[in-house]
Task: structure prediction
Amino acid sequence: MSEENLFLSKLSNWVNLPQKFFRRELLPVIADLRLAIILLLAIAVFSISGTVIEQGQSVEFYQTNYPENPALFGFLTWKVLLIIGLDRVYHTWWFLSILILFGTSLTACTFTRQFPALKSARNWKFYDEPKQFEKLALSAELTTPSLNSLEQILQKRNYRVFREGNTIYARKGIIGKIGPIIVHASMLIILAGAIVGMMTGFIAQEMIPSGQLFQIRNIVDAGPWAKGQIPKDWGLRVNRFWIDYTPDGNIDQFYSDLSVLDNEGKEVDRQTIHVNKPLKYRGVTLYQADWSIDSVRLRVNNSPILQLPMALLDTQGRGRIWGTWIPTKADLSEGISLVTNDLQGTLLVYGNDGNLLTTIRTGMATEINGVMLTIEEIVGSTGLQVKADPGIPIVYTGFGLLMLSVLMSYVSHSQIWALQKSDRLFVGGRTNRAQVSFEREICEILDKLTEEEKGDAIAPNSLETSKLIV
Result:
């Protein structure tokens, strides 16, 4: 060999080295079922952690709920949680890497195992020697040639029959071999939808008083490509927020009357939402999630209507109470406090000394410290959770295909061979599942065959069950 040819040969080997390494070393590892199971378990564990651990909260929240002493489970502190990224599991690089690796493993398994198995199942092959039937799960030997009758019986039982001379190969249930491929494809679609949602979705939380306009701005969690999903050419107006109460005073349901407005302020949609009935508009969903008291509208003597904000008071975890302070003297030396815990319209009035003076309801007036106080309205705020996830339609499509493909996978792939040899007919078959039903079907086929031959019987010990081969 010349030096030039030797050099070209070495160069070719060097160029093909990465390809050989991938096929021989890396691909078998990626396509290994054990790796796929480990990755699937990892996805499940981290998804559970993302459900149990509150996502997207402030550092102070995690410092309060996950202190360093004592640490949860002896190691999980707020610092560990933030460093690992358990406060934003679904947007971390390592969770995305696990999803991509799992998808790669499924793809490799599909091309290295499922497609070859389907190709093998679609190929027809004939047995031309009696000894080949001994290796089948079920085999029988008949004393009378009945190949034509067998072909007709198999066709009536929805077998696809291939015949070549004195041999027959028949199969049905090839869809059962396609099912696992679609299972893998549907899982890949679900993963793709999850990744799209992670990268382009966002979650926002808004607390908006009745009657106010707003645009979605308070983003609490968003993917790196979510900017284009946040609406800029439309906004919303809270026409009214109210709460229905049960006869015993408990909250029955929250309601928000919302209008969707375009850039010119024109109403393009209007819906009343409540818990479990959100508003959906152009891929953005608004859920009724919380409520608050924003302010109280009142008159002092003959003044115009004043709207004073009400603040949430610290009750040390003993319920939610809102309050505000109203001066009763111009120099602010004296005043009263208004306190309430709901939107039913009742306010408690306290003096400077902290003693309860009276109660007052909306629409009523009372004189306090020489001042006539009239309550017009308690203004509530609706708490909305806003969510956009472009990956949801993809995920739903994947789940739909997954349910269909699982049903397809339960279809048995059954194969039957027959060989006419002299005055003998050899019949055998196997299936990949539902072995008992397949045995019953083989017996029915043989019984039908002997009936059509009018008295030709199955030879002694002719029906023989051997080791099941899948």
